[in-house]
Amino acid sequence: MVKRCGEDPVAARIRYYIYGIVRKFSESSVRVPSSYELAKMFEIPRWVAQYELERLIAEGVLIGKKRIGTFTNPRSTYSMHIATDAMPLIAVSYGSGDHFTYSHEGAFSLAAAYQTLGKLDCSIHDLRVPGKTLDSMLRDIGSLSLDGLLWISPSMDFKKELFAELSKKGVKIYTCGFSPEPSVGAVEYEYQHAADDLLERCRRENRTDLMIVHGGRDAFLECFMNTASGKGLNIESILCDEGEERYCEEVLLRCQKKLPQLIYVTDRLTLRLFQSLQKAGFDLETACRFVSSREFSHSAFYRGWMVHYPYGKAAERAATLLFESLHKPERVARSESVQCTIEECVFAEPPAL
Description:
By secondary structure, the chain is an alpha/beta fold. Helices cover 41% and strands 21% of the residues. The strands form 3 sheets. A 6-stranded parallel β-sheet has the order 5-4-6-7-8-14, with helices on both faces. A 6-stranded mixed β-sheet has the order 10-9-11-12-13-15.
């Protein structure tokens, strides 16, 4: 009796591997590895592999021949679909792909990427590689027979090695939001325009005392600090790495001693900090300006400036460049950039006290 493994990630890997074989030989019937071979290949119990084979046979994707083996079915709905459309197969991943929910960046980027690739008549694979070694990722991704890979957000280790190895295998790769190496095409964010704009706003409103509240590395902040160097600004930096409560209290205490003319916050707690200072009676519209490095819902109560990242535009352009590269025999890695901007934001009315 075969145990049911539901939506086990390992079972999905086997299924995707077999779909890759079906796609590669869509017009002919070829033998697929046995449950024993699949178990050894993916280092899993044999019953998991057997279950997936039986599941695909029941769906008509495979044909089981007693004492001979299991073969792909070129007359299945799946085989006939990919044979007729001949659409390029593009994998899309946001970081590792292991997300319960998506951030503002993820939602806008993925929506734009999927819509663009859909309009270009591409087949899209939702790539997820959480907690895998480099070797296992290369094996699993390689088994999909991809034409291209679009990777959004750099939140993963050893990505350079992964992209280098996949490029050697002929997979066209484009990244969105970061550039891992010269052999990979990329659409990055350009921060200098926004940094110059923020500096000019400070000059125009005569704001020279700045407080930077950050949780670590921030690309725009690094650009702004370099741009502001030597421009006569007094900048106080607060590194917040010990929890929400502690740094909110620290900022409040420092503002009570001396209110800075501008507060730049890189952390997700922009709204909480803004509302805490507002509740404490600080003037955050004239005496002090707030600048958020991240965008958030328009239903939130916030008045100030915001660094706008064109997530959708960057993802749309990366998807387009990737598609265009599929029709070029040589490996052409193009890099482009899209400008970030500083936006004035007035969201909602303050909550009733």
